Structures are given as C-alpha cells and as structure tokens.
Amino acid sequence: MNWNMINKLPTPSYLLLEEQLVANGEVLQTLQRQTGCKVLLAQKAFSAYDLYPLLEPYLAGTEASGLYEARLGHEEMPSKECHVFCGAYKEEEFDELLTYADHIVFNTPYQLKLFGPRAKAAGKEIGLRINPECSTQSHGIYDPCSAGSRLGTTIEQWYQEMTPEAIALLDGVHFHTLCEQGAEDFATTLQAVEAKFGQYLSHLKWLNCGGGHYITHKDYNLGLLAKLLIAWRDRYGLQMYLEPGEAVVLNAGYLLTTVLDLTINGDYKIGILDCSGACHMPDVIEMPYTPPLVNAKRPGEALYTYRLGSQTCLAGDVIGEYSFDHELKRGERLAFADMALYTMCKNNTFNGMPLPSIYVLRLDGSVSLIKKFSYDDFKYRLGTKLKVR
Ligand SMILES: *Cc1c(COP(=O)(O)O)cnc(C)c1O
To answer: Which of 82, 137, 190, 194 ranks highest by number of CB atoms within 10 Å?
Structure first.
C-alpha cells in the first residue's frame, strides 16, 4: 500500500481497493464452481456501481431491497440476474419492478397472492421469504428471527394462509437470518429450515439462503459451506443461491480522515476527526462496533490511548477507543479499514457534514476519483434548486 500517495488525498474520503474486490470475487467464484450455487451481490451493502464491471465476472447477479436497487442492478449489471426481496411491494411501483427483476420474493402469503399471479404471467420466478425462527446471533437489530420479527413467513402462518394455489405459485423460497456468521450457524439454520419447511422443498426449483455468510473472512469454514450447498442441491434438487453483501466487499476500502483537534476530559484523551460515525459509518453507532484503524491497537495495548470522535455536535458520535505507540498530533492522518460495506450507501449529511469523496485504488496502482460531493448535495436535497442568495 503506497501510503505516501494515499496520504495526499483530501479527507474525509473513501478509498476502494480493486485488488481486494478481485480477491473476494475469486473466493466466491471458486465456491460457485465447486458447488453449482449462484452468488449475488446484496446491493444494500455496496452500490458503488462504477465497480460493478470489476465484480461482474465473479457474480451471478445482484440482489435488491426494492424498486431503486432493482433498477440499479438491472442498469449496471444488465447481463446478470436481478433478484428482489422487499418487506412489502406497492401497487404503483409493481409494473415497473417487473421490467427490472428476474426473481421476485414476497414477505407474506398476502403479498404473494396479491402480486404473484401478475409476476408469474410476466415470466418471473416467484419466491416467498420464510422465517425459520432460528436465532443464531446476538445483534438484535440484524436478527430477522428475533421474537415479533416482521421479516419472513413462519411455519404457523404458512399453515394458516398458504393455500394450494399459493403454494403452486412458488418457484423457490428465501431466508435471510445471518449477519457476519460462519458456516456452522448456516448449518444450524438449514436444520431448522428442513425441520419446519422440509416437506415443501422438493417441489421447488431454488432455495435462496440470503446473506450474512462471512465467506471471505479469513476464519470462515469454506469446506463446510461447500459441503452443505452440495448436500442440499443433491437432496432436494435445488439451485442454491447466496446473496452476501458484506462478504463481496469485505476489507475492500478505507475511510481516510484527519485529526482536527485534541482535547481532554478527566482520564480521557480525545481526538476530534473530520469524519463521523453517525454520517459516514452509521453501523458503528447502530450495531454497534469499533471499526479497525490502521496502525492502532486496542485501548491500553499501546502507550497512548485515545477516544476518537467526530466534529459533529452529537455527543454519541464516538467511533471508538484506540491506542497508539506515539502521541497523536493535530493534522495527523488516520485510516479506518473495512469501510466499503454499509458506509457509502448509508451516508447522510446530518450536522451539515460533507459526504466523503470516493476514490478507487486501481489494480495498476493508480488512484482515480469516482465521486466528489459539495455544498449543493447538502442543500438541494432538502429544497428547491433555485440558487438565490
Ligand atoms: C442484508 C441482506 C443481505 C446481505 O447481508 P450481508 O450481511 O451484507 O451479507 C442479503 N439478503 C437480504 C434479504 C438482506 O436483507
């Protein structure tokens, strides 16, 4: 990594890493070749479509959360499959959705019965999202199997509402229950799917096993994943799908920032940065988690520990505590790692914070700017385009 060059880029900026995207893509491609499964990019994690041509050879297509993402996948990866799952579709957008999507997955039997026949007549593959009610994680807001979840149809609801006509509409079923999890939790989930919905599976063409598979993580058990995918393909005659977001772009970006000021409160040494958790990496606050920071250690491990936060006025806009071998200086550059996922597509201009520029470190070592934002992006999203002073 040529940090001399990177440290000349303005901050705050994202720097996406083509080399890592290709490395992730190769892992996914090998898996698809070994198992016959198809892997889609979940665009809600990453929609920087300038990079879609680079990713496209390694993917079977895109997955969308609704009309806009389906359109984006259709426009920017047009030669590949376009899948959509949405918590509820709207009448006024459904015909347009049919022009983009190849697979349409419904959340409830009601929506399946309402829109399914029209989608079928348009030649689409139809699915229903099921809820296997098998929690394997502790991140409450990312657990679609938590009590009272609105995501997916439970077996109890299936028995009550899935008429033979509704079942006959189905080409496949879909579940999404994981978040940053291993193949072991996938195995547990598959057991729950089989115990509850097993009797319906052999009548279907495909099974979409959602995202949250940490496939490209260094500790991931790829052998177990491949074994499970092959076993289910063979046992039920299913085309298996995975739709990771995170795993496609894992470790493929930095958020570059500058230490603007240093302050102190009691025992805390504090660094104030020109980036924001709330605006530029909202998962840090929502999940929450502490993102990796290049050349920093956990608090207390090195000599100087700092709490790093944003220049915003939100008291909770703290990114985390880190320690360094040296005292931080005003003007010093820092780089948060693993910043390609759930960042750019979740950004906002709360507090009038600028949106970070998006740069790409190309395979040949050069850096190019793909997007730069300005005051206009903050102002004119909320009002008329008239430039009156
Ligand atoms: C969020 C989501 C994904 C992607 O999840 P990752 O954790 O980024 O892999 C895939 N499918 C559905 C339905 C989702 O909601």
So the answer is: 82
Output Rg (C-alpha) for the chain, integer angstroms: 22
> Hey, which residues does 41 pair with through a beta bridge?
62
**170 and 231 fall within a common domain:** yes
Structural domain span for residue 223 = 36-249
- Give residue-wise pLDDT tens across range 246-296: 999 999 999 999 999 999 999 999 999 999 999 999 999 999 999 999 999
Residues 43 and 7 reside in one and the same domain: no
Which atom in ligand 1 lies closest to the alpha carbon of residue 180? 7
pTM of the model: 0.97
- Measure 177 CA to ligand 1 centroid, in angstroms: 9
Number of domains in the chain: 2
Q: Output the CA 300–ligand 1 centroid distance in Å.
A: 35
Q: Which single residue is written with the structure tokens 């079942």?
A: 167
pLDDT in tens, 202-257: 999 999 999 999 999 999 999 999 999 999 999 999 999 999 999 999 999 999 99
Strands (DSSP E) found in 10-164: 13-17, 38-42, 61-64, 81-85, 103-106, 125-129
**DSSP string of 332-349?**
-EEEESS-SSSSGGG---
